[in-house]
Amino acid sequence: MLSVLRERDRKGDDKSKSGDSDENSLSFSVPYSWAVARLGEIYESSFYGPRFGKDEYVKEGGIPTIRTTDMTPGGQIVLREPPRVQVDDPKKLALYALRENDLLVTRSGTIGMMAVFKGGYSAIPSAYLIRFRFPHEVTAEFYYLFLSSPHGNNLLGLSLRSIGVPNVNATSISKFFAPVPPLAEQRRIVAKVNELMTLVDALETQLATARSAAADLLSAMVTELASDHPSRKQAPKEAFSAYESSDDSAEFIEALVIAQLTRDLSTPKFPLGRMRYNKLAYLSHRLAGEDVTKHYIKKAAGPYSPWAKFDGPEDIAIEKGFVRRGAYGKFKGLLAGDSIAEIDGYVAKFPVCRSVEQVLSSFGRETNDELELLATVDFAAVDLRAAGKPIDAEAVEEVIAANKDWAPKLDRMIFSRANLKRALVRLEQVFPKFYGEVG
């Protein structure tokens, strides 16, 4: 294939290898040994994930259907107890089944999320995914990197410069111009990028550990200073703890929220992480009409409640046996505790606990990136509302850009202008009164 495309380039039968007037052409030059072609000429076929009837889903056996929630930001596929279907027709199975080196692209929800299927088991793409199948002389990982790049994001309509509707459909993607290096060079590029990303991940982990240690140290210092204050010495420690965990205290109610989310979302292999429960708890408090600025602050991953971690709620949930800390491989977080069933005697009493069920119904299966997007956009909207300003994607972008912890978000595909607009549409569906009042 490469030799044919290169020969065509030499004859000048197609667009130039460098920047061209066509909006879809390459904005950069490529080596002479490479070819340039439309993606539709590079991949063998595209396929929209099939839809299945309720009677085709099975609890045991069957074939897993890969969803956006099974795709990581790094392009990997990690099955998170996906729905399974029974496909008895061999022809249908041959049509639906993924093969090694297939590229998956999300066309709805978290638009533009991508991953490469590495094989090793049978799987089918869900209805909101597009499957692109490449020939043996092409590695899908190279085109995952191409479409994930700023140039690729711009083609897909996912960059900050994009103002129209994202071009995430098979027809549009087939028309994008892309470089076609020799297979050996594709593999070398992929290997080098993976090497660099491993280094970046290690540095981010070190930074997160340092920040966590600093936060823990600050909390300990504040606690120690506060405990030395005369007003704190007047009450015995036992009495203070009882107040914090009484059945109608804010701390106890938040412990219930944490327990609800843990029961519904955690599994032995996937404990509920703090980032995920923070975002879902935030949305639950918003749905209950509470003032989220009381406990939530702007942190790198979006709205974050240090109060829930350091001031009682998490500890109460653990001490009551509602939840317990757990880990499975690299995944760490909360698992349901031995006394989790006890929360059923309390949750109906509190509006935020009742809101948890609706939030889980609307957002419980979203990716962490999508939850970060929704919670961040909504927290920005709360700021705009308080300042009496209109709420739209451009204004939300300005709020994000103005905060030093949030500004780096705008370099990520999930925080493109198109996704900010999409998030506002989804939030208005869940909070119609709030977003309706502002316009």
Label the overall shape.
globular
Strand order of the largest sheet: 2-9-6-7
Q: In DSSP terms, counting alpha (H) and pi (I) runs of 4 or more, how many helices?
A: 18
Helical amount among residues, as a percent range?
40-55%
Description:
- Helices cover 46% and strands 12% of the residues.
- With 439 residues, it is of the alpha+beta class.
- The N and C termini lie far apart (53 Å).
Key descriptive features of the protein:
439 residues, alpha+beta, Adenine-n6-DNA-methyltransferase TaqI, Chain A, domain 2, 4-stranded antiparallel beta sheet, 14 strands
Protein topology:
Elements: H1 2-11, E1 35-38, H2 39-42, E2 45-48, E3 57-58, E4 63-66, E5 84-85, H3 90-96, E6 102-106, E7 114-117, E8 124-125, E9 129-133, H4 140-148, H5 150-156, H6 170-174, E10 177-180, H7 183-227, H8 230-233, H9 237-244, H10 250-265, H11 274-287, E11 297-299, E12 302-304, H12 306-310, H13 313-319, E13 323-328, E14 331-336, H14 351-363, H15 368-386, H16 393-402, H17 417-430, H18 432-438
Parallel strand pairs: 4-8
Antiparallel strand pairs: 1-10, 2-9, 3-5, 4-5, 6-7, 6-9, 11-12, 13-14
Helix pairs in contact: 4-5, 10-13, 10-14, 11-14, 11-15, 15-16, 15-17, 16-17, 17-18
Region (Disordered): 1-26
Biased composition (Basic and acidic residues): 1-20
Organism: Luteolibacter rhizosphaerae
